[in-house]
Amino acid sequence: MRTAPLPPPRTPGRYAVGVVCLGNICRSPMGEVVLRERVDEAGLARHVRVASCGTGGWHVGESMDHRSASALLASGYDPSGHRGQQLDDSWFAEFDLLLAMDSSNLADLGGRSERVHLFRDHDPVHVGADVADPYYGGERGFTEALETCERVAACVVASLQRLPGVRGRA
User: Fold this and answer.
1) Catalytic residue numbers?
2) Domain CATH for 65
3) 39-57: per-residue pLDDT in tens?
């Protein structure tokens, strides 16, 4: 299946991607960590900013859920340094692309638009599906969310590399 195209950058040579879920302690921080790592590996860190937030404010300032951190650590990622943030209007002005983890988050962002997509609009396996919230489930849900984040990050980085002025290592 074909994944969604990225919107053009607002500022030539710079691109900002925001990953959004409900509380910013499970899915979106995982997406942020994995996407940032892939951006770094591709040599795009000078050009691409990656951040995450939640639509709700319950976990502002908190670390990510220990199960998200454990899944990331087990796969070689560094989850340290995350502090929960809440979405506000500035995200719509500052970010070139906002990626919502599920359809409820997407609705909170005002629905699909050129700059607001579902995270899995960039998943070659399940285009447009939700990333299930693992918060109330077991370890497997966190592993599955991480696997999805890895697939999506690879596709987003490949798309970023095709944008004029945002090129890293080939």
Assistant:
1) 21, 27, 133
2) 3.40.50.2300
3) 999 999 999 999 999 999 9
